[in-house]
């Protein structure tokens, strides 16, 4: 390609030969290209670096002269105002631009600015001479002069918003600031989420430093400080009121919502005070409410805290440990240990007195000595070797079993028959008496009016026994029986 001429179209064969030569040069099988100064050109240099820009007049030979520092007197641009219509020139927005035109524009704006300043100075001199210069006007003029100084401060980092892409750039930090995860390198300190770059807790919590004295105390410290809590309460109140039918909105009607919230809080406090006074008037107990806190009365608390000589917390106020829903460390009956603190021979007990009886009274060291002395002979009796009996044969075991069965059978047949008959007679007698009472009660209820009769008075839930069924059959009246007239005699 010539300097500013059009590119000559290469044939397919020439293009193929050119590519093969480049590959051979990269492999080192062909010598590298040489520029006009006799220096070799690295064949591995990318094309976008080795290609010569259009505004530099390249020589016919390949060169990297445009990549080296240029002298000030050397001409780098094409003829002023001349358009280059090659591939790069058509796509260059500054093609044909005259750099000297910019100086004319700068001079024009400088003249306009000088004229403005001259007119303002002349106007100021006239007002000073007449004595009508106002201080507010002077401040207003100074603000107009300095308004261009802060034009670059409008778009701050973290607040840029593109309406087309709908992407908010947030959570950026200045590079000079210390990263959150570098403030405390202790692995047991606050957790840092690298995805959202958030550290909710205070990284200095385990060092005992006051959150008000450190530069960064966690995201939650900032989130729940200032007017954040009141803002969240107002938003919650907005949702609750909207569900009940009031048309209010935090952004649309902030004044109306604020007045409504204030009136609601006043009415709520008045209602609580009235309810409290009514309860105290009815039940009493005002003297208990006026008492000082329990910590002041007993001069003690369960919270262990260590302070420095300056009043800073050194140790304590750690996170509360999740406890069980059951009662813990409940000591009864003078025990100093809980039930289950002692175990022996498969039984649980109290460690303070070695008592195996639950809810027993503690006897202390005396109980330990008694329990140990009582257990010693028992253990010895258990551990004493017993005389080994000769094992019986299967025949002997079978004969003993048959003899035992015969003895039990004779004993059972003699006693069971008599006992069963006596029990049956006694049960039948009681069932007949109960049946007589039931029949009399039914007759009495049948004589009453249905409206005065008790509910479910003629209804039985339980199933009758065999004796009750036999008594019902014996006491049942049968009108068709020819001997029914003689039953009452």
What features would you describe in this structure?
It is built from 13 helices and 6 strands. With 489 residues, it is mainly alpha-helical. Among the domains are: 1-96, no CATH class; 342-381, no CATH class; 426-477. The strands form 3 sheets. It has a two-stranded antiparallel ribbon with strand order 1-2. Strands 3-4 form a two-stranded antiparallel sheet. A hairpin with a 2-residue loop joins strand 5 (342-344) and strand 6 (347-349). Helix 12 crosses helix 13 (466-475). The N and C termini lie far apart (149 Å). Mean pLDDT is 76; it is low at 1-6, 74-79, 149-161 and 375-386.
Short description, anyone?
This protein has 489 residues and is mostly helical. It has helices spanning 12-27, 47-50, 87-90, 100-130, 135-146, 219-223, 228-243, 254-283, 286-289, 294-298, 364-383, 394-447, 466-475, and strands at residues 161-162, 167-168, 305-307, 313-316, 342-344, 347-349.
Q: Which helices and strands, and how do they pair?
A:
Layout: H1 12-27, H2 47-50, H3 87-90, H4 100-130, H5 135-146, E1 161-162, E2 167-168, H6 219-223, H7 228-243, H8 254-283, H9 286-289, H10 294-298, E3 305-307, E4 313-316, E5 342-344, E6 347-349, H11 364-383, H12 394-447, H13 466-475
Antiparallel strand pairs: 1-2, 3-4, 5-6
Helix pairs in contact: 12-13
């Amino acid at each position: 390609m010539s300097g500013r001429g059009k590119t000559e179209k290469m044939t397919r064969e020439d293009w193929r030969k050119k590519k093969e030569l480049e590959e051979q040069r990269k492999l080192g099988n062909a010598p590298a290209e040489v520029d006009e100064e006799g220096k070799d050109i690295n064949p591995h240099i990318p094309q976008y670096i080795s290609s010569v820009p259009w505004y530099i007049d390249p020589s016919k030979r390949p060169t990297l002269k445009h990549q080296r520092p240029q002298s000030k007197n050397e001409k780098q641009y094409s003829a002023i105002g001349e358009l280059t219509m090659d591939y790069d020139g058509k796509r260059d927005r500054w093609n044909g631009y005259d750099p000297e035109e910019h100086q004319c524009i700068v001079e024009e704006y400088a003249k306009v600015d000088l004229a403005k300043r001259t007119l303002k100075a002349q106007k100021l001199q006239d007002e000073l001479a007449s004595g009508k210069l106002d201080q507010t006007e002077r401040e207003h003029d100074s603000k107009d002069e300095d308004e261009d100084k802060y034009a670059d401060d409008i778009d701050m980092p973290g607040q840029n918003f593109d309406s087309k892409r709908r992407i908010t750039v947030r959570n950026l930090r200045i590079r000079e600031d210390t990263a959150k995860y570098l403030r405390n390198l202790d692995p047991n300190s606050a957790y840092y989420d690298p995805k959202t770059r958030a550290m909710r807790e205070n990284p200095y919590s385990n060092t005992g430093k006051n959150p008000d004295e450190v530069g960064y105390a966690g995201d939650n410290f900032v989130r729940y400080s200032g007017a954040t809590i009141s803002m969240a309460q107002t938003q919650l109140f907005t949702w609750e009121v909207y569900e009940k039918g009031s048309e209010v909105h935090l952004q649309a009607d902030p004044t109306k919502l604020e007045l409504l919230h204030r009136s609601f809080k006043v009415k709520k406090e008045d209602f609580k005070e009235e309810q409290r006074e009514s309860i105290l008037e009815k039940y009493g107990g005002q003297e208990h409410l006026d008492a000082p806190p329990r910590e002041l009365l007993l001069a003690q608390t369960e919270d262990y805290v260590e302070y420095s000589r300056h009043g800073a917390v050194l140790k304590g106020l750690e996170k509360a440990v999740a406890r069980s829903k059951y009662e813990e460390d409940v000591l009864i009956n003078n025990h100093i240990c809980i039930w289950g603190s002692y175990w022996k021979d498969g039984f649980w007990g109290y460690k303070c007195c070695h008592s195996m009886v639950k809810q027993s009274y503690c006897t202390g060291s005396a109980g330990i000595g008694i329990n140990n002395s009582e257990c010693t002979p028992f253990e010895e009796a258990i551990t004493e070797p017993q005389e080994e009996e000769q094992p019986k044969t299967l025949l002997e075991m079978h004969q003993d079993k048959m003899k035992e069965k015969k003895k039990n059978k004779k004993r059972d047949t003699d006693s069971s028959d008599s006992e069963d008959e006596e029990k049956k007679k006694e049960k039948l007698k009681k069932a007949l008496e109960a049946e007589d009472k039931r029949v009399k009660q039914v007759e009495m209820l049948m004589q009453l009016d249905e409206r005065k009769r008790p509910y479910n008075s003629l209804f039985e839930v339980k199933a009758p026994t065999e004796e009750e069924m036999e008594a019902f059959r014996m006491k049942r009246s049968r009108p068709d029986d020819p001997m029914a007239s003689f039953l009452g005699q």
